[in-house]
Amino acid sequence: MARKTKEDALITRQQLLDAAIEQFSLRGVSCTTLTDIADAAGVTRGAVYWHFNNKVELFNEMWREQIPLRDIIRDRLNINESDNPLMYLREMFVVGLQHIAQSVKLRALMQILYHKCEFTKEMMLESEIRQRICFGYEMPRRVLTQCVHNSSLPADTNIELALTTFHCFFSGVLKNWLLFPEHFNLYQQAPELVDNIMATLPHHPATLPMPMDNVAAYHYQAR
């Protein structure tokens, strides 16, 4: 039998990571065994141990390999941050929600994060996972600070409170959508949902919703 090449090993490793995402999202992390993952990937249990020492290591590597959402959608935005930072933030939120709605893989990852995982001390911290795959606090904080500096937002805007509000809003939207996807169309309603959260910022003309005729500019095909 021919020996496996390095390329073959990398392919198997990726198959295991993809199978882990699928199985964790269906069964839950605690109820998924390495045998379940091996069967879903079409390999032996021994092949799993060739790449990962245990399920926790596989779980952590699964998250480490994910590209942050902000990086995935960056090239799909129509507005430059420097031209209109507030509308740039709005568009990033809209396109981000729409990407989650269309991406089977990202939807499964969100399902694991929000509903199918009980964290233990050996696992990557939930806060680190959120920072890795979502927008985190750094980017919105930078953009809101720019908005204060260019007077798009009042000088006394409480940026940290706004960030907390954004975080609670998006977590709530995603948790409810994942539980009851039939209750609303996340892709179609993303602009309206984001406009509602942007409306919590201090009143300024720049925070008013974009005309619905322009919503089509946000539609794109997910990779």
UniProtKB/TrEMBL annotation:
Q: Which InterPro entries match?
A: DNA-bd_HTH_TetR-type_CS, Homeodomain-like_sf, HTH-type_Tx_Regulator, HTH_TetR, Tet_transcr_reg_TetR-rel_C_sf, Tscrpt_reg_MAATS_C
Which residues, as ranges, make up the DNA-binding region of this protein? 33-52
| Keyword annotations from UniProtKB, A to Z | DNA-binding, Repressor, Transcription, Transcription regulation
Q: Which residues form a coiled coil?
A: none
Domain HTH tetR-type: residue ranges: 10-70
Q: This protein is called what?
A: AcrEF/envCD operon transcriptional regulator
